[in-house]
Amino acid sequence: MKLPYERPTLRKLTAGALHKFGPRPGAAPTTALDGVPVAELVARFGSPLFVLSERQLRRSYQAAVRAFGTRYPAVQLAWSYKTNYLNAVCRTFHQEGAWAEVVSGMELEKALLNGVPGPHILFNGPGKRRADLERACVVDAVIHLDNADELHLLLDVAAGRAARPRVALRVNLDAGTYPQWDRFGFNLENGEAWQALGRVVASGRLALVGLHCHIGTYVLQPKAYGTAATKLAALALRCQRELHTTIQYLDLGGGFPSTNTLKGAYLPAADTVPALDEYAEAITGALLGAGFPSDELPLLVLEAGRALVDDAGSLIGSVLANKRLADGRRATILDFGVNLLFTSFWYDHHISPTREFSSQTEPTVLYGPLCMNIDQLRESIALPLLAPGDTVVVHKVGAYNMSQWQQFINLRPNVVLIDEAGAVHLIRAAETLEYLQQLERVPEHLL
Amino acid sequence: MKLKPNIATSEAGFIFNPATGDSFAANPLAADILARAKTGLDAAAIKADILARYDVAPGQLEKDWDDLLAQLRDFNLLDQ
Amino acid sequence: MPPSETRPRLTVAVTGLNATDSPGPGVAVIRALRETTDFDLRIIGLSYEALEPGIYLRELVDKTYQLPYPAAGTAALLARLAHIREREEVAVLIPNFDAELFNFIKLEPELRALGIHTFLPTLAQLDARDKLNLAAFGAAHGFGTPASRPMHSAFELPAAAETLGWPLVLKGRYYDAAVVHSLAQAEQAFARLSGLWGVPLIAQAFVAGQEINIAGLGDGHGRCLSAVPMRKLTITDRGKAWAGITLEDEALLALARRFAEATRWRGGFELELIRTASGELVILEINPRFPAWIYLTAAAGQNQPAALLRLALGLPVPMMEGYAVGKMFVRYAWDLITDHTEFQQVAALGEL
Fold first, then answer.
1. Partners for B (CB, 8 Å, 3+ pairs)?
2. 3-class DSSP string for A236-281
């Protein structure tokens, strides 16, 4: 029996300096995902491979419903489609009871194809075209108005229709966070939102049913949501009082952080990100105290995306090569890069080896396989002495990667879902060159 | 592989370069290799011994050997 | 102090061994602890860097272990402390760095389960005195604080200068500050401070006057058990006190008592003040831990670290009355002699 081998390596001993990019702890190996060995997943589906946990998807959804539902009588989650486009994911949430929040005509059709009834689709986004608005009217989706031009376009579309299209007004406001998101919707503080509400009601052609506000992304201050909820509730009460219009729902948007650590953060997110309960407490506390009669509390809608899906996604990848850079630093090239892990631009993802190593680590630059200088996954990470062929697991990659991924230089890999019984389902097959080229047309003279 | 003659290696895997004042920590295999090199054993003999005792393919060992040499050179520990 | 048969043995762990030109308080805390008559102490040093001088002060520190950087998070810290606890019967742990306090406060219950006692402010107290919240804190409790605003980008500098006036004090999120007199200087300082500590920075109006610091100890129920005011006699080019003298001034003691009462402060604290020409006391900063000059409190007759040790163990601590006024400290530099083998032990194995 031979001794286990790890490559010989030296470490220069330094005093170091207290600095925000201090070394992170070495990781314990992740040998299986939801009970399925990583080696088995790679043998069956190749590497790289996205793996989604149905158990975690449902758990996150139920946790969110519980956080808000135990504090407020009427709560509805709307799954934010752009966070993950895979139908298996979308349908899992719809099965749990989620409505759909979409931001384009394409996403609207996707939600309809996933069986979401039109009235349960909330249509956000700053770039709706006339055809999108017409389609939304046909299926009775709720249109969240973003700007005055859109409002007038919709009034035009509504003119010839028997039923009044249902609309909500997207409002941006000062919730005490920085930067203040003011590019979406109508501003509250400068009176623009009130003016638009007046126009919507006075037109007689639209049914105003909701108010919407999304204060930002990865917002770490629950208090800010409380402020937004208070302001939105006051606006709803004013609609009741002065426009004689009952606002049926208040949509507080999303933007809740996951426990992925943002690049440049001093402390890891697992220690600093407030629990969803704290957001729920801030929002529901503000609404319950806003002055609505207790039997006329508006429905609370939340457009959760990242908080529902991030934890459920993992990315398995393999070491292609190790090399040493000109300045002596170690570099490791993986078979996935920013083409698949778009979120590595802003997160320091937690990355685990998949087998036992000694406690020796070496600071390593992580590169993807792209022949492109931007393809760097991590400037420095303390990983065990990985050899070519070793696999790694990147944790909490469920949000945005499977919608913002690219076919740049490499095709997109298999995606599997592990169901609650531990069975593995292929939910998106690895792309082929044929798939990539099927829409291309080569002019006759170039054939 | 020939270390500078005045490089001090300890059993715990510490390496001290008295000419620069730098200290280094070697992992167990690197410490083992350096200790053998100091006794005058040549590269071929050290590698043969590693192949006999450790679970590693010859090709992998060659690559890692080259990388160790690169580190030693980078740290100014080799007799040029 | 000779070991005594009658004094119980106690192991105490202390961080902040970086007694450098911008010193951490650890070595001073240990020096004060060593003067307790309550216990026969074994002192465990906890360091982040291999060249923190306290590691090599073997007559003060019996054994040192390296800790993971605060940025590694609570899980890594707890694992390391559990490992240390298996080797050392640490009964009390005294953290001394601002940047590490969040983690130690979060871990209080877990540490208690390991048998390690602390006596720290709550997260809410820590947050309330944060540089970013200082102005609101002052307004809420009626303390004078300089006008200030958070700065997320260097583009905000002209507006900040307009409202706060020149010179402007720019402060890093955790450490460090610069007094700047022009936009060019401000931009340079902004780049340096944000590069080191991230954003936001804090821009404060400059307040002229005499710099005074108060070291205090709150019992967590609103009582200030000890307060010793000190005026800096000379400072380094980084603004750190190099010599100081204890003062007698009822207004300063009253301020410390009012602070402990308003916040129900738990543990050591330092108030950094300016007394303006008109005698007004303005709080520039509230440090949630002992200052590096804490040994002066022991020398003046109010041994705050030794009292904190008793508080951590749940022992009674009477209000400390009276201290020697005009007691001075003069800091000095001293070259410790050690060997490369000791450095290797710390740097590679994290223990000495």
1. A, C
2. HHHHHHHHCCCCCEEECCCCCCCCCEECCCCCCHHHHCCCHHHHHH
The token pair that represents C291 in the structure block: 């200052």
Distance CA A235, CA C270 (A): 45
Q: Which residues of C276-309 are buried (b: 16+ CB within 10 A; e: fewer)?
A: eeeeebbbbbbbbbbbbbbbbbbbbbbbbbbbbb
User: Domain residues for C32?
Assistant: 9-119+335-349
* Residue C50 with chain A: CB contacts under 8 Å: 13-16
d(CA C219, CA C317): 9
Residue located via tokens 């790890």: A6
Q: What is the CATH number of the domain that holds C99?
A: 3.40.50.20
> For C255-299, how does the pLDDT look when each residue is reduced to its tens digit (9 = 90+)?
999 999 999 999 999 999 999 999 999 999 999 999 999 999 999
What confidence tens digit (pLDDT) does each residue in C133-178 have? 898 999 999 999 999 988 888 888 998 998 999 999 999 877 788 8
Q: What is the DSSP letter of C112?
A: H
Q: How many interchain CB pairs under 8 A, A with B?
A: 71
Task: Indicate if the pLDDT at residue A19 is higher than 70.
Answer: no
Which positions ≥6 away from C121 have C-beta within 8 Å? Answer: C101, C105, C265, C266, C267, C269, C288
CB-neighbour burial class of residue A407 (10 A; exposed 0-12, middle 13-18, buried 19+): exposed
The CA distance from A105 to A118, in Å, is 13
Of A11, A20, A24, the CB nearest to C198: A20
The DSSP bridge pattern shows strands C9-15 and C90-94 to be: parallel
* Whether B30 contacts chain A with CB within 8 A: yes
The CATH number of A32-52+311-428, from 3.40.50.2000, 2.40.37.10, 3.40.50.2300, 2.30.30.220, is 2.40.37.10
How many angstroms from the chain centroid is the CA of residue A53?
16
CATH architecture of A54-308: Alpha-Beta Barrel (3.20)
Of A11, A22, A271, the CB nearest to C103: A271
Q: Which residues of B touch C349 (CB under 8 A)?
A: 12
The answer to whether residues C165 and C258 belong to one domain is no
Contacts of A21 in chain C (CB under 8 A): 71
With b meaning 16 or more CB within 10 Å and e meaning fewer, what string describes A298-321? bbbbbbbbbbbbbbbbbbbbbbbe
Q: pLDDT digits over A162-210, tens only?
A: 899 999 999 999 998 777 788 899 999 999 999 999 999 999 999 999 9
- Which range has the worst mean pLDDT, A263-267, C241-245, C273-277? A263-267
In terms of Cα–Cα distance, which of A23, A387, A327, A6 is closest to B71?
A: A327
Measure CA of the first residue to CA of the last residue in chain A; give whole Å.
61
Measured over the CA atoms of residue C171, residue C172, residue C173 and residue C176, the dihedral's sign is negative
Residues A347 and A338: their CA atoms lie apart, in Å, by 12
- Distance in Å, alpha carbon of A63 to nearest chain C alpha carbon: 23
Q: What are phi and psi of C165, to 5 degrees?
A: 80, 165
pLDDT tens-digit readout, C2-27: 555 689 999 999 999 988 888 899 99
Q: CA dihedral defined by B29, B33, B36, B42, rounded to 10 degrees?
A: 150
Nearest CB to C51; choose among A15, A25, A178: A15
Amino acid at A425: H
